[in-house]
Amino acid sequence: MNPNRTTAVERYSAVDPARQELLAGAIARARRSELYAKRLSGIEFDGDLTRLPLTTKADLRDASPFGMLAVPAAQAWHYHESSGTTGEPISTWCNLPELRRMAQIVVRMVPELADPTILLNRFPLFAPVSFVFEEVLRQVGACHIAAGNMTWEVPFDRALGFISRLGVTALAALPLEPILLREVALMQGLDLREIAASLKVIFAGGAVLPPSMRRVIERDWGVRVVEIYGSNETMLLGVSCKDYRLLLCDELLEIEILDPVTQAPVPPGSAGILTITSLVLEAMPLVRYSTGDQVALTGESCDCGERGPVAAVYGRYEERIVIVGSSATAYDVLDAAFEFAERLDTRVFFVL
């Protein structure tokens, strides 16, 4: 590690007047929404975020569809809502300037995009991550094959055909998709490396990506895997660098890692609930939004030269598994399972 670089812990412990000004502006924008006009009523922001209440998914669900909007609905660029499988759907509104900021980070951190790019987008096209990739491709002047895996027109075998016939150079998908595409190729007696000869990079997001899972995808496909971390409500939260470290986008976010029970800040290096206050969202600002994701910051800055604290994302806190008095995360289970499966030269396994 470069001794002259500031660690993430030191950076967040220092009072940065410019940062405080950004934060104050973000909170002022949030007060324009019905949700935060009520929640922040009578509370004057003095630079101390802990004086402000947390925002939960339930709060957003109760406020959907218009209660969290800080601009007229017709001025928002994109709209999304969750499936509603666990209750009423949660709305997400976003504007083009904030999408541009997010796309700029992806373009900056992924040098493969500097080459002529044809991207096969297998993310559900209604999801905000697809909005980000739309803008990424617009910025680099690239071709977008919008073929989300939730549409019946492009099943897995046809997606493989797109990759081989159209000279696809980038694939964006859930981490499991490249695993499944490999199985389809094997069942059809096809050479995956031959099919994917033009491919240079795979963007994997929407679920945890432990090291062993990333490693088997890279070995199977012969390309670099870039982790894209975010959520429907927050959109982009982090991107992995060339050194395979996930860097949270602190130019977009004020970050807190809080104890899931006490809601107090956890010690450096410990896992807690990622809680963010957006510095750039205008259509739907978020103040101390508890993502529900179990995340740990290493306290280091990466030597890759990119900014942002190094993080590990372990999955949803509420989905952790208790085994003989100890808890395991989705990250732990998948990392162990893929490491074991790789030794058996398989990608198929069941977790009981």
Structure description:
The chain is an alpha/beta fold and 352 residues long. It has helices at residues 8-13, 17-30, 34-39, 57-63, 96-109, 128-140, 156-165, 176-187, 192-195, 211-221, 330-343, and strands at residues 78-81, 91-94, 118-121, 143-146, 170-173, 201-205, 224-231, 235-240, 246-248, 253-258, 271-278, 289-297, 310-316, 321-323, 326-328. Helix content is 32%, strand content 22%. The strands form 3 sheets. An 11-stranded mixed beta sheet has the order 4-3-5-6-7-8-9-13-12-11-10, with helices on both faces. A hairpin with a 5-residue loop joins strand 8 (235-240) and strand 9. Helix 5 (96-109) crosses helix 6, helix 7 crosses helix 8 and helix 10 crosses helix 11 (330-343).
Secondary structure layout plus pairing:
Blueprint: H1 8-13, H2 17-30, H3 34-39, H4 57-63, E1 78-81, E2 91-94, H5 96-109, E3 118-121, H6 128-140, E4 143-146, H7 156-165, E5 170-173, H8 176-187, H9 192-195, E6 201-205, H10 211-221, E7 224-231, E8 235-240, E9 246-248, E10 253-258, E11 271-278, E12 289-297, E13 310-316, E14 321-323, E15 326-328, H11 330-343
Parallel strand pairs: 3-4, 3-5, 5-6, 6-7
Antiparallel strand pairs: 1-2, 7-8, 8-9, 9-13, 10-11, 11-12, 12-13, 14-15
Helix pairs in contact: 5-6, 7-8, 10-11
